[in-house]
Amino acid sequence: MSEFASEPRAQSTIARIESIPVADPLDVADRYGSSRGLVPGRAAVLVRLETSDGVVGWGEAWGGSPAARTLVDELGERLVGTPLRPSSNWLTGLLQQSYHYSSSGLHVVAASALDIAMWDAFARTLSRPVHELMGGPTRDRISTYASTGYVTIDNDLGRFRSVLQESADEGYPGVKIKIGLGVASDEERTRIARETFGPGAALFVDFNGNYTADQAIRSLEAVRVHGLGWAEEPVTPDDHEGLRLLRRSGVPLAAGEAVYTRFGFRDLIAGRLIDVAQPDVTKCGGISEARVIAHLAQTWNVRFSPHVWGGAISQAATVQLLAGVPTYPHTDHQPEPLWFEMDRGTNALRDELAAEPLGRDGTDLLVPRTPGLGIEIDEKALARLRSDR
């Protein structure tokens, strides 16, 4: 019998679900983003789930779409009164019932937040960290790379270099920069990143799908000399043939931040169109579905490195996920770390919502051993960041 079987609170039900929109707007001069454009600020829809035992779990949905909040409310109504049992079964049932809506889009974003909240509440009910309920921990610390070098309103290269230098000075062993603005710009930005971080650092470039395949091929021919760890989303997420053409570049390919559920990742992974699968827990279907995607990647011997560009809950959920992912196929010698994306852009949702930040040792994140996701929400910060008041 499981050691948790005697826990009476494991039979608790979902009593209340509240959707909470939060936002951190940016002044025009301070906006940043990618080759696809600048963001006016950072936003998300949070989920506060309370059980019949008074335990509270938190979730986060990607972005600040009012439609996502409406869907959280709609899907949450169906969950109220049901047993607290987080698993991929719930999302699978949802997709079967709503197959006319496809297995992607905002209803999966909303479901992702609910799934994360259910895991947080369930693990707190059992006084365990989430990763322990998923077979972890497989590691006690997680290596991070600096996700920085964003596109800005003026794209001043002096400012670009200065921002990169800040992360290099803090000792980050890897960096990801934004490119996709044209071949000449791509080469210059990649060269500056390599000069700033030195020959030993991991260097990733992110196109955010702004190119056609022929444009991406020309860009990769120009930047590959700088030694790339991977090229992220060189073409749009649905351009599978474009990814196939880009295989001849010899540069590892990564994608997944705009891909939903295991079904979206199936062909990318099984077709060996990517070398690195990058689901985002706040949109792919939550922790449950991200875990399935990690298993798919392991089955086809593909690397796994989640996309992380949300707030404190997104970060904490991703740490719990990675804490339970094996180092397959490696044993004593791991050629490259299992990377965590450390967003370096201005983001109060990341820096202020947690009462205490995730533990760190240098640039490494330490896996929490406290119940649930491992963070507590700062209610005063939450009240300040709410966008509905």
From TrEMBL:
Going by the UniProt record, its keywords in alphabetical order are: Magnesium, Metal-binding
**UniProt keyword Cell division, yes or no:** no
Q: Name one Pfam family in it.
A: MR_MLE_C
InterPro entries with a match to the protein in the record: Enolase-like_C_sf, Enolase-like_N, Enolase_C-like, Mandelate_racemase_C, Mandelate_racemase_N_dom, RHMD-like
Domain Mandelate racemase/muconate lactonizing enzyme C-terminal: from-to ranges: 157-252
Q: Which cofactor does it need?
A: Mg(2+)
PANTHER family referenced in this protein's UniProt entry, alphabetically = ENOLASE SUPERFAMILY, MANDELATE RACEMASE, MITOCHONDRIAL ENOLASE SUPERFAMILY MEMBER 1
- For this entry, the protein name equals Mandelate racemase/muconate lactonizing enzyme family protein
